[in-house]
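HOLO CASE FILE
Compound: pyridoxal-5'-phosphate
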Amino acid sequence: MITAVLPTYNRTPMAFVSGKGSWLTAEDGSRYLDLGAGIAVNALGHAHPALVETLTEQAAKLWHVSNVYHIPEQERLAQALVEKTFADTVFFTNSGTETAELAIKMARKYHYDKGQPRAEIIAFEGAFHGRSTGAIAAAGSEKMVKGFGPLMPGFTHLPFGDHAALKAAIGPQTCAVIIEPIQGEGGVRTLPDACLKGLRDLCDQHGALLIFDEVQCGVGRTGRLFAHEWAGVAPDIMMVAKGIGGGFPLGAVLATENAASGMVAGTHGSTYGGNPLGCAVGAKVLEIISDDSFLAEVNRKGGLFRQGLESLVARHPKVFEAVRGQGLMLGLKCKATNTDVVKANYDQNLLTVAAADNVIRLLPALNIPDDDIAEALARLDRAATAVEA
Ligand SMILES: *Cc1c(COP(=O)(O)O)cnc(C)c1O
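Model generated. Tokens follow.
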């Protein structure tokens, strides 16, 4: 049945009216502990005072100006990202999907300008890069592409983490390799450090650009500012969104000078991308999260949560199989049906998010208090007991 809002989501019947930290309040006044954080978006929880202040201050000054002018808030955030990462330059978008579009364009333009056009982009099964026609072609799964063809050509799909398959597929025709260091939608599947290193070496060997999609795993989520830092390898291009805006729609493509060399004036644009509101908020989010002591806390909290989850899995072997992930990007591989577990969690006023591979995701605010972690574990335990019954 058609509804006023296009029914592309299978929605749960809760509606929230306000939030504070890791808690959401529903229309009926009931409170929910939020381990979804808008799918890794509300990185500092709901209504963080510093973000509310930054947004309202900027809102009183200036919301939007065209990118035909200099935007100081945008330049400040770009400068901060350049200082804290491998990148030399940044383009701002309003979403993760848009970062996929630019990453693809940038990689193809790079080779075109070198006089040797290359179209092939290697991507991986289970990947999620967004919902544009380009991004679904990159992901390639039947679920996302069926009925939307013809798709953007040029993508090759390999099993996630299969080095031998990658070695066989990559060659002088390869424009780029695009990968999430930790797959989010795919089920919190972590690419081992050795694979990321091997990937970097193969790309260098064949002159292909390496694109990391850190839209979900970036911005402090794993306990480093960006997940690839754990492996000690850097990409040529990186996609960032979700957490960087703390809830304000904001994305960014970060790149080395070399990888970005084709993107000269007139080759790309965005009306809203890099607007003063989003960039003012993004700069505040980055300032808070990139602090070493903040990231150390994410690691400590991640360890604490993980320890509790390991014992939860041990207590409920019929419901859970294993803990996955790093820092506060956590997953529970389920033995029971993951959507049943998510529903049982709702019954405990606990919000978790299903993922592929029969996993539920726990993506709390990065500043979740220890008490809320303990409360979440108690609720997960009660929900698991209900699933067993
Ligand atoms: C969410 C997500 C995207 C798409 O971001 P949108 O803001 O929904 O367009 C792309 N890549 C990954 C890894 C994501 O998790």
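CASE NOTES: The chain has a mean pLDDT of 97. The chain has two domains: 60-289, 293-326+341-359+379-389.
CLOSED: yes
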